[in-house]
Fold:
Amino acid sequence: MTNRKWTLGLIALILVCGYVLIQLLSSTMRIDRLVQQIEPSKMEGPAVKHVVLIAQELDNPFWRTVEQGANDAAGKLGMKIDYMGPIRINPSEQKKLLEKSITAGPDAIVAQGISDPYYERLINKAIDQGIPVITVDADEPGSRRLAYVGTDNREAGKRMGELVVKDAAGNGRIGVIIGSERADNQRLRLEGFRSIISSTPGFEIIDIRSSNISRIQAAQQTEAMLRQHNRMGTIVGFSALDAAGILEGIRAANKEDMHVFGFDDLEETRRSIAQGDVMAVIVQRPKEMGSKSIQLLEQYFKGGSFPKQHYIKTTILDSERMNASVSGR
Structure:
């Protein structure tokens, strides 16, 4: 009797285990079928592309606007922007960020060119690893970068020269504040500017100094320049923060009737134009630079091809155009 009970218990246990095993297998098979249904939809959906954007200076208004344009385009195209840059202008830090970004292996990189042989080699290294690189604002033309997106800086410099020559009220003795002596975009602007000034009788560039993309240094260099050249009548700034710094330097040197020209339409610069302290500025379109860079990457990812240079048009902003814009609203 005891053996019979043991046998029946064993059979019952086997049946229970068999039932549990069948349910487990059935559940596993259902999960597998669900996963198979989900996975194709994932494969069919667009993968998120990660793009690193390396700015010249993290919180510079110009670069924040580039970031905004890139993010706007990325949001529409299913990409993600990882924005980074030095806290202060620092080409060495830009090189380190580019090197680390390549190691991290993003889908693409957008970065400013800095006219540096090692930086050029890093861009080529990224290309060799299948990471497309687009230069923005300043080019690295000796590299194998995918494309350059930004201002035609030589033409922008010529345009600035034409503005200064057209300003009949200013005298022809000109001081220039450039953002950086090494930056390709600043060098090209100066080349274009020189080509107009040197071919116009009565106009002469008598001093050129660098602000290192710093408002404070622009002010200091302007003051020093004016104390050395007291007959100077016009000062031109080639980077976004220069115009504001030039005005501070003019006040520090106790000079009057100076004619100031600059680049970009920062809010403070716009106020200075309205007040008559700045004659005119060449306005770039950093937001469009950011968005165009991402649009080109989208074309590249889809197998498209395009020219190596994409120039974003500049405009001129002066008091007349500001007043026309306000009255037209």
